[in-house]
Structure formats: C-alpha cells, structure tokens
Amino acid sequence: MRLKKVTSLPPQAERVWQVAIHPTLPLIATASSDKTARIISLQTYDPLSTIEGGHKRSIRSVAWKPGLTGESVLCTGSFDATIGIWRRYEHDLDVRNSQEGDEEEEEWRFALVLDGHESEVKSVAWSAGGNFLATCSRDKTVWIWEEIDEDNFETLEVMQEHTQDVKCVAWHPEEVLLASSSYDNTIRLYREGSEDWVCCSLLEGHTATVWTIEFEKPTSPGYREEWGARLASCSDDLSIKVWTRISRSGSAAEAKKAPPSILRGESIEENWVETSTLPQVHTRAIYKVSWSSKSGRIVSCASDGRIVVYEEIASVDTEMAERDEKKPPMTGWKVVAEIEGAHGVFEVNCVQWSKRWDKDAKGENDEVIVSCGDDGVVSVWELEDA
Amino acid sequence: MDGKNANPTILNASDLPTRRQVQRKKVASPLTSGLVPAYAQDPFASHKVEFSDSDESEDDSVVEPIDEQEIYDLIATIADPEHPLTLGELAVVNLQHIKVIDDPSAIISNVLVELTPTINHCSLATVIGLGVRVRLEQALPPRFRLDVRIREGTHATGEQVNKQLNDKERVASALENETLMGVVGKMLETCK
C-alpha cells in the first residue's frame, strides 16, 4: 500500500499544531501559533471560517464536543493558559445536497473563557458523551470540568499526579476513564471514585516524554470485548506502544455491566500492561498517533517529517493464552505505508484518521488521513494499493 | 549575578577558528518583528510544499551543504549573558563539539551542538542553550533539525537542561516569552 496525497490547503501564516475532526459533520478545526482556529470543509477542502480574538498566544489544541445536534461547540486550549469555548448554531445542513457558498455561515460566538491553569495549556479533550472536559498544562496538572448549564462550567477536580508538564489528555470511548501523558515519561489513568477523581493506574515503560495517547475505538476490527479499548502511546524515545488492561475480576464486558468496583468494596486500581511495541521507523520525536475506527490501523507522525501507517498482525500467542486466560496476548504490528517529507522539510505535528466526505469517497467506510505541520499546511492523504 | 563565574577561561578572539562568512539571505529577526519563526517569513515558504533542489531562485544555501565551520561562525559570536565576552571566547562553543549531517540527497539535515558551560552548575545553561537555538533557527534553512545539548559530564543537571532545550513545545513557548526573548536578544546583538 502507499500513501497518496489527496490535496494540500494553501499554507496558513504560521505553524499548525493540531487538527480535530468533527464527530458528525464534514468539518476540521485547526489550532495554530497565529492565535487562530480555522474551520475547513472535509467535503470541498475549502477554508470556511477563522475563529480569532479569544487568545493572546498560540492555540495549541482544539476539540469538538461530541453528542450535539443543531449546534457545534469547539474548545480551544492556548499557550496563554486559558481555554476557550466557542459555539455556533448549525442549520439543517443536508450534507449531501449542500453546495459551495450557498449557506449563510453562522458566526462563531466566543461563549466563555476557562481560567485556572498556571501555564501553557497543551491539550483539551471532551469525554465520549460530551459530559466532561479534560485539560492539561505545563503546570503539571490535569483539570476535569463539567458544564452544569449553558456557558457555566464547574471544575470537578484538579489532578496533580504528574511530576512534569502534561502533554496530552484522552478519554476512553465507553467508560468514564481519562488518560494523560507527560514530559515525566509516564502515562496515568483516572477514574471517578466515590468522592473524588483518583489516579487508578500508572503506565511506565517509555524512556522519554510521551507526546500523545489515544484509545482504540470499539468499531475497529482489532477490538476485543474481553480486553476493552486498548491505549496507544508515542514518545520522544522513538517508540509507539500499545497497552491493554489486565482484567482483575472477570472480563471487561462483565465489568461494564457490574456496579462500580468501589461499591463492590474492591480497590479502584487497575493494571495495564504493554502488549505491543510497533516497529521502529521514525528517527526523531513522534508527536502523534491516531487509531482508525474503521480499519483499526494506526498512523503516526514525527519531527523527522514522516507519516507512517501500521496494521496489526493476528496474534499467535497461544502459549500465553493457555497459561493465563486473564492476561491479554502480545500482538505484532507491521508497517503498511510510509512517506518521507510529508510536509516538505518541515516537521509534521499531527495526524488524524477521518471519514472521507469528498467527491471521491468510495462508500461509508472510506477514510482519509489529515495531517498538519510547521509549514502551516493541512494535507489530506489516502491509502491506496501500490 | 553569579560570583562563582568570576574567573572563566578566556580564549583570544583572534585564535578562534573562522573564515569569511558566506553571505546569507537575511530574514527579518523574530525578535524585532513579532515572534514568528524565520521560515514563516520566508517569501518562498508558500512554494515549499514539495522538497525541490531545482528551483534556481532559492537561496544557495539550499543547494550548498553547510558544514561545522559555518555553524561555529554563527554561534561563536553570541554574547554570554553574564560576561562581556562571547561564547567562542569562553569556549562554551567549540568547533570540535559541532556535528553536521547535510546530505544533499536527504530531505532533512541535522546539526548537533554540544555546549560546555563555564562552571558545572551554571544556572544560565538553559538560557545560553536557548540563545544558540534561536540563532540557528533564524539563520539556517528549515531543513535543519537542531539538537542543542550540554556536553556530558560538564553540568550537574545537564540531562534536565537537555530535555528542556530539545522539547518543541517548551522552546516554542519560550520564544513567546517577552522577558526571556529580551535576554536572548541582547545575547545575539554581538552576532555578525
């Protein structure tokens, strides 16, 4: 297979740090060091609007709130230590029939600013149902926020478990479980206890800053109900790892149906183990991994300017499986496509899988990879058979 | 500031390795024109989506490989934040501790600069490292990846300093810090 470029948007004035794919509509949001967030159409790849004026420094992270209809809500995380919440009403957009430029674009409204972090915000993430917002910062903390009514957010918890900058936060797709990764080389997981949120797991294994973590999606082919969604991580140590939870009391499927472990009188702690290290391709810090909800493939991007796509090899760890049914199997991965110089000579900051919405989309399950880099460019890639 | 650095070893400026500086297309300094990295102000940036060495209108540094001596010439004249001397004169920067890999057939090139602080607990090691980074980021074409490190064994918290100096987000946000950039700006005033 090979990665083929579908298109590149005209460059923005400054580096683009991140892209975020809308949960339901054909839209991308970008975060840039020019203090703006921009909205781009995934149908036509045209730039649609620019969100500005809310932040005094670079916008580092953007995230769309899931679970909404008739409205879009975007969260922006900035180096100015604040978080912005932006709203826009969406018309009854019939995405199949809409034509370029014939709708009146509703304006983005700057709904509110969330203060609290003491230094640069690095990552923002909404929980799967949209109930919670997690944010993290160079100030070593992870904050959990809840929107109690419109434009009114409450801080539920400030977690100070990491010993250094927290680079990324990510929520589990089904359970109320939050992951964070840090400059301190570790990954931490958090759950809501009876009174407070607590750190329920510490994942050690990386030997340098962990830039990104992302959970597997339940719709991906490699997902196993008995182990639940796995976690992928990427690091300055040039490795990408996959972590799986060892179920302490029965399968993950049972755990979902049972009352919270805290009521059953059990410890809230859980054990996660490394079940894969992906083949090493990148030669410099790996900034991002993204896990496809359709094909189960993982895509990564790095300072070395490469974008790499990996696929899981069916595990043949039968010896392990017989010996200990509760231990998840080790799995192997192989590289299926790789491209150097994806953004010319510049670093690639982010890659994300997305459903394909453009005119060349081959059905509902077709996907593309969206990338962005220090050249200020957002590019779109397809995987084709070589 | 720090009285313990009162008697550093000083080299004679005329003894330092150098050669006539190649005339390089000068991009506007981010320190005076808003904190935008040099590449974003490069008028050719919008055309550089694909790497190409056949475009004759580009700066000749794209075609001519850059070597260790050129890197040295760029950073040896940076002023030390404490002493009225340059990093070259103080032997903080040394030609033999610079390594360049600039293969014209590869897309990206690498520069490794190892710094030797004047004393092993120099509290300004991070600022000096940042100054070297800023200078090289402004002066070199974007195909260069920089690794600026404190030479092993020369600093008590060298590994911690190295981690900061080579973390992209930390460096990016330091470049947006006016106070810090004021200090770095003064250090770069002496550069030729």
List key phrases describing it.
heterodimer, A: 386 residues, mainly beta, Methylamine Dehydrogenase, Chain H, four-stranded antiparallel β-sheet, 2 helices, B: 192 residues, alpha+beta, GMP Synthetase, Chain A, domain 3, three-stranded mixed β-sheet, 12% strand, globular, WD repeat (chain A), Probable cytosolic iron-sulfur protein assembly protein 1 (chain A), WD40_repeat_dom_sf (chain A), repeat (chain A)
Commentary on this structure:
The complex is a heterodimer of chains A (386) and B (192). By secondary structure, chain A is mainly beta. Chain A has two helices and 28 strands. In chain A, the strands form seven sheets. In chain A, strands 1-28-27-26 form a four-stranded antiparallel β-sheet, with no helix packed on it. In chain A, strands 2-3-4-5 form a four-stranded antiparallel β-sheet, with no helix packed on it. Chain A has a four-stranded antiparallel β-sheet with strand order 6-7-8-9, with no helix packed on it. Chain B has a domain at 68-189: Fe-S cluster assembly (FSCA) (GMP Synthetase, Chain A, domain 3, 2-Layer Sandwich), CATH 3.30.300. In chain B, strand 2 (109-115), helix 3 (125-139) and strand 3 (144-150) form a beta-alpha-beta unit. In chain B, helix 3 (125-139) packs parallel to helix 4 (158-165) and helix 3 (125-139) crosses helix 6 (178-188). Classes of the chains: A mainly beta (386), B alpha+beta (192). The A-B interface holds A 8, 10-11, 13-15, 33, 57-58, 60, 79, 120, 122, 138, 165, 167, 183, 208-209, 236, 284-285, 287, 303-305, 340-341, 343-347, 374-377 and B 36-37, 39-40, 45-46, 48-51, 107-108, 141-143, 145, 163, 167-170, 172-173, 176.
